Structure formats: C-alpha cells, structure tokens
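Lab channel / #folding
Pinned by the channel admin:
"Please post every new chain as: sequence first, then the structure tokens as a reply. Keep commentary short and put observations after the output so the thread stays searchable."

First post following the new format, from NK:
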Amino acid sequence: MGYDDVPPRISVRDMREGEEAARKIFSQKKFNWAYEREWRVLGPVGKVQICEKDIVRSIYLGSRINYRNRQQIVRVFKKSDIRIYYMNVMGYTHDWVRID
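Reply from TO:
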C-alpha cells in the first residue's frame, strides 16, 4: 500500500484500460493512514492461486463484516497456520480479537 496526500494520477490510457486505473486507486491511501502499514492483494476476478507457502500469515477482518462471511472465511482457513483477527469496536477505540 502506498500512502500520499496527493491522489494517484490516472491517465487517459489508464481510464481506457480500466485495470491499471483500478490498481492505482486501490493501492493508495491518504498519508495519515500510514501507521497501518497495510498490504492489499489485488488480482483478477475469480479464484487466485497463491503458491508460496507461508506467504499469508494473518487475515484482518473489519468490524462491519457480515457474520456469515466471517464464519465462511474462518472455516476455509481453519486447518491452516493463518491467524484470523476481527476488529472489535468499543466506542471510539478498537481492538483486534484473534479467532481460534
């Protein structure tokens, strides 16, 4: 993830192809979010194979994720070494809770 206070430049060519424009937009956030040190995995629509072992170590789920979707993600990764956390919001603070 890139962090900057200036929005990414989208060229006419990017807009025609679409995919490059989407990559630029989804790969950048405002600089004041840099403390998150966020990584995003962008890929084509559909199933994407991740071949390297241990490439993903943790999954963080936002506080607004639908319970059914959360359970489905937990079920898929249950037998893996990937740690799954969800955001628990309490007033103006939040905490990451590990799902076992």
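NK: The chain has a mean pLDDT of 86.
TO: also worth noting, The chain has three helices and five strands.
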